[in-house]
Amino acid sequence: MPKGVILKGVGGFYSVLIDGEDEVVVCRLRGRLRLGERRVLPGDRVEVSLEDGEEGVVEEILPRHSEMIRPPVANVDQVVVVQSVAQPDPSPTLIDRLVVLAEDSHLGVILVFNKVDQGLTDEARRLVDIYWSIGYPVLLTSAKSKEGVEELTDALVGKISMLAGLSGVGKSSVINAILPGANLTTGSVSERLGRGRHTTRHVELLPLPKGGLLADTPGFSQLQLPEMERARLQELFIEFGKYAPQCRFSGCLHYKEPDCAVQEAVAQHHIAESRYANYVTLLEELIEYEENRY
Ligand code: GDP
Ligand code: ZN
User: Fold this and answer.
1) The pTM is what?
2) Other CB atoms closer than 10 Å to residue 132's CB: what's the count?
3) 192 — pLDDT class (breaks 50, 70, 90)
4) Best of 98, 162, 186 to mutate for ligand 1, by most ligand atoms within 8 A of CB?
5) Ligand 1 pocket: which residues have CB below 6 Å?
C-alpha cells in the first residue's frame, strides 16, 4: 500500500504527498479513522489506497515521533529560529526562549539571521558567534538578495521544519525566497488591517525543491515555558553540560550555590553571559510558577 505524508487537511479532505513521487492525492479518511480519537495532522505519515479515477483513502496513520500543539503539526524535526540583524534587532532573550522550547521538544535547532543585506551590526555578529560556538548551525540570509537562501534550503532537505521568530523578521519572505510559488503574504499590510495573518488559515506543509517540508505557519506562537522540573532547564542550555559535573553540589542549579562550575565558566567567558542571564530569568520564571501553583 502506498505511503505518504499529510500536507494539509481541510473539511475532511487531506492532501497526501505520496513517497517517492511528486504527486499529491486528495484523500478522505477511512471511517474508523474519522471516529478515532487521534486527529490527523499535517506531517502525519499515512498509508493510502488509491483507486483509479477516484479520490484516495487514508487507511492507516503511522506512529508519530513528535507533535507540535500550536500550530498542530506532527513529526516536526527541526525549528528554524529566525531573527533579523536589524529592524527588528535580534533579541537574545527571544532566541533562548525559542531554543529552550525546541530543545524541550527534542527538536533540532537552526539559527537564521535574516536581512544581512542591511549589514551586520556588532550585536548581531556577537550573537552569531555565541550560537555558532555552542554548536548550533547558524545561517546568514537575505530574502532580498537571496544570500544564504541556498544554504538554508540545503539544511531543510529530508526534514519537516518550522520557522519561529518575531513578526517582521522576514519568515514569510524567506519562505517565498525558497519557494517562489508559495506566495505568502509579507510585510505589514494585514497587520495594519488589524488581523493576524495566520489566525483563520489552516497549516500547510510546503514541499521544498530539494526535498523536505516546511510549515507555512510559524511555530511557538506561545512563548511560555511548559511545566517542567527546575533541574531540567539546565539540560536545555546544552553548553552547560560540560561544566555541570564539576559543580560542588550534585543537584546544582547554577543559581545561588557556591563553587558552581557553570558560574565559573561564565566568569571565564567560556559560557556567554547573555545565555546565563537568560537561563536565570527562565529558572526564576519556573520557580515562581511552581510556587504559585498551590
Ligand atoms: P514575517 O512577519 O516574519 O513573516 O516577516 P515578513 O516576511 O512579512 O517581512 C517583514 C518585512 O521585512 C517586510 O517588509 C519584508 O519586505 C522585509 N524583509 C524580509 N526579509 C528581508 C531581507 O532579507 N532584507 C530586507 N532588507 N528586508 C526584508
Ligand atoms: Zn553549578
Assistant:
1) 0.93
2) 12
3) very low
4) 186
5) 114-115, 117-118, 142-144, 167-173, 186-187
